[in-house]
């Protein structure tokens, strides 16, 4: 009796936790990535690099950009026209990408299209998405020459692949019983799309399209200089790399930030009105 009581009062020892192989692999990957990043940062620095001097110069440049911005060699009207050119590029490529991407998304959705067509479309779209947008723009710049045409085709190309994936994933969320019931009732593809797909998914398709518009605007700023497409990105490139006018760079950044804030406000309004 005494032995049983004493044994019952003995605290139980916790069994050692088994080693999680996934956690070990993740820790090793993060450690290796950190070591490579630190080594790469050290190797690219010049031998006589002065961190304190570089920090002071960087701080002084930031002060010039954000505390004393001006239009420099340009004018407010020219910068506004350049900003609207970038917005127009983003809008056109988003509309084209949404239209073609919806067709490709329907072809990639497994509950709408045949399996062979779905797999083929998804494979092609995955290949297009694997190549960054800027590379597509540069590829078309070689074929079409520098200018807005290459930027429009390159941005649209990647927008189609992006939106086709998210549209297909959204369409595949429709219950298969709903589509099968419509098909059993004698409905063809067009009635199925008009009665089951578009009415129930219009808000989410709009949400994804607006997200892509935000991405395309950022890409339009980047390719403005890389592909000679003009716009606010080209003005930013000229001010920073040719004139070294940090005052104008700051003004251009403020123009971009102002539009981003307006875009976020519109996105919030649309989300509350149509999506939520």
Description of the molecule:
This protein folds into two domains: 19-65; 69-275, MetI-like fold, CATH 1.10.3720.10. 80% of the residues lie in helices and 0% in strands. The protein has eleven helices and no strands. It has helices at residues 2-9, 21-44, 51-67, 76-108, 115-130, 133-144, 148-171, 176-184, 189-226, 232-241, 246-275. It starts with a helix and ends with a helix. The mean pLDDT is 82.
Annotate the secondary structure layout:
Elements: H1 2-9, H2 21-44, H3 51-67, H4 76-108, H5 115-130, H6 133-144, H7 148-171, H8 176-184, H9 189-226, H10 232-241, H11 246-275
Short description:
This is Phosphonate ABC transporter, permease protein PhnE. The chain contains 11 helices and no strands.
